[in-house]
Amino acid sequence: MTATSLPASATIGTRARTARRGAVDPLLMVVVGLLLLIGMLAIFTSSSPTAVDQIGDKTYFLKRHAVWLTLGLGAAMVAATIELRTWQRYSVVLFFGTLALLVALLAIAGPINGSSRWLLASGSIQPSELAKLTVIIYIADWLAERREEIGEWAFGIIPYSILMGIVCGLIILQRDYSTAVLILMVASAMFFVAGARLNQMLIAGSVAGMVLLGFLVSEQYRMQRVRSFLDPEADPYAGGYQILQALGAFQSGGLAGVGLGRGQIKHAMPMGTAHTDAIFAVIAEETGALGCLLVIALFGLLAWRGLKIAAGATDRFSGLLATGICAWLTFQALINMAVVARLMPFTGIPMPFVSFGGSSLVTCMAAVGLLANISRRSDPANARIYAPLDFGRRNRRAHLSRVHRARRARRAG
């Protein structure tokens, strides 16, 4: 019998999919583990007063968080076990299923705290949190299938803008403006890394900025947050209250903090926010600048490992998926910190792995499972981050890494 040889591209694709699994990136696991431990400690000390007042059990929220963390660990194990090509195969189903869930939420869910973000009255399950992950999976697949088309308006930037407009529009209708902006930032980072031209991104970004500005000024409560951000002392007992309390926590925390459990901001913050959106302020007061720097350093390490995993990915989908997950977790953490430090208007975005759990914690853990999955198939020899981004010679090539271009050159030679 005569052996039939496969085309070079098919051989490389097969090798990428059947590459022997290695070990999970150990530093990634250590960083996430430390963030989870810090989160449990911070949740206990920040939620105890609220738990005692409401339930009579100071460990109530910690125990609930432990339940969500257990679910999150299960989600991470599933995400790390299922083949990456399976995630790619069902990315369309996940994406449109999430869209259907967002539409259904608008129809059936009642408002909680002026919003319609939650499926349950407890406020623990938000479809918009699921959207963060499913959009990344779908966009990674969408971009992986389009190489040359990305640089074209008709097949690249316009379809991308329509997809993002639908997703972000549905989330904004739930009065979750900050999550919509976060998803748009992450998807834009993925699109740029995949090979979009800088001038395209600037034009599309300008249009998106004007649309988002229109949504911003259309709601009175959003404009009130902006005014409170610009001048919190003008309304210190309403719009500016949380901002002033957070700034006070940084001032009283100093270098080493007032000590675990001794902070006062958790008593002053509105009910339920000390262990969720404002948990970084509690960390700042009780552990000081040193504690804050530790958290920032851990997220910096998480970003570094995520980018390194993306650079060493053996196929385009995996690399873009790792890039999107890295951008999501990093951007969300930075936004949460910036809000508490009064660098941005106050929003309801939790800190990944640290804030009180729920659907946010479960989806973040699933994302880490996917990162671990990709790291087991990454090529350590090629896992290098290339700093120079030559904007002038885009030529529709991806920023992701030089691995695929090097292979293409070897085949040509």
How would you characterize this protein structure?
The chain contains 16 helices and no strands. The longest helix is centred in the last third of the chain and has 33 residues. Helix 6 runs parallel beside helix 8 and helix 6 packs antiparallel against helix 14. With 413 residues, it is an all-alpha fold. The protein has one domain. 67% of the residues lie in helices and 0% in strands.
Identify the notable features of this structure and list them briefly.
413 residues; mainly alpha; 67% helix; globular; disordered N terminus; disordered C terminus
Number of separate domains: 1
Radius of gyration: 22 Å
Low-confidence stretches: 1-20, 110-115, 385-398, 400-413
Q: Class by helix and strand content?
A: mainly alpha
Q: Summarize the biggest pleated sheet.
A: none
Determine the number of helices (DSSP H or I, runs of at least 4 residues). 16
Order of secondary-structure elements: HHHHHHHHHHHHHHHH
In short:
This protein has 413 residues and is mainly alpha-helical.
Topology readout:
Elements: H1 8-17, H2 26-54, H3 60-81, H4 84-89, H5 91-108, H6 127-144, H7 153-173, H8 177-194, H9 198-218, H10 220-230, H11 241-253, H12 265-268, H13 279-311, H14 316-340, H15 359-375, H16 403-412
